[in-house]
Fold:
Amino acid sequence: MADDIAATSSEIIVTDRAIIRYLERAHGLDVLHFRNHIAALAANGVKAGASGVTVEGVKLVLQGNTVTTVLRREWHSRDLRTKDGDST
Structure:
């Protein structure tokens, strides 16, 4: 019966949220620890009104007091403080 419903991994979509919850619940990943660590890294940038900060080899993208994503240092991010993405 399992062969009848078997699917390859390329046919199954696994969301980022599911991956995080799996790591948290099946492998003991302390999500709160990392949330607090990222918040501490972002604090000075948030206070300065920055759209992002580069720390520990990555860029934290900020919108107000929210870290919206984390990019590799070499990836360019547009300035999210203005509607068209250009702060000038």
Remarks:
- The radius of gyration is 18 Å.
